[in-house]
Amino acid sequence: MIMRIAVLGASGRTGGALVDKALERGHEVVALVRTPAKVTVPASRQVEVRKADVTDPQSFPDLTDVDVTVSAIGIGKGDGPGALVAGARVLAAANVRATVWLGALGSGVSSRSGGLIYAGVMRMFVGSELAEKAEADRIALDAGATVFHAPDVTDGPLSPTRHIVPLADLRRPLLPPRISRVTLASLLLDEAETGRHGTGIVVPLS
């Protein structure tokens, strides 16, 4: 079934992968970005671009014409604290039928789910952002979203063994887990299309 999918953070690397995969599957795509000029797609591929600054909710575009929103926003260079929470709040208020929110394994309730080594790496490199990630997840969950706690994202091919597991069913790995960006994008779209896991935290795996 063809869907109208809004991608928040479409100008980022994961957001761009989401746009590409959604178009490959025949969906209509609405790219939500702070700077529309950063969205580049071939002229043959139809993408509607809407200026969307999560820190300015009064000007955030109407999304009542989309079927599902997939968020791929993160905390970018130059962003002050609060961008993730602001994004979660605007999507919670957007009145979209379904939302898939991208969070991070090792934050909030999954702080130890990636294993002890992974937890240490997260504290070292993402420590100052962990509290905000957890708060954004809570807002998204309260609004009924499916929240993905993705492990470390890398470049690489699409995994043929990709799958999604509820956080409660995740076996704690010994080594830090990873997932390729294209695999993550595909799994986010799988959930957007099916809504299989509903409200809750899930983990995408290769």
TrEMBL record:
Residues 9-189 form the NAD(P)-binding domain. It comes from the Bacteria. One of its GO terms (molecular function) is oxidoreductase activity, acting on the CH-NH group of donors, NAD or NADP as acceptor. Transmembrane segments: none annotated. Pfam families: NAD_binding_10. This is NAD(P)-binding domain-containing protein. It comes from Streptomyces himastatinicus ATCC 53653.
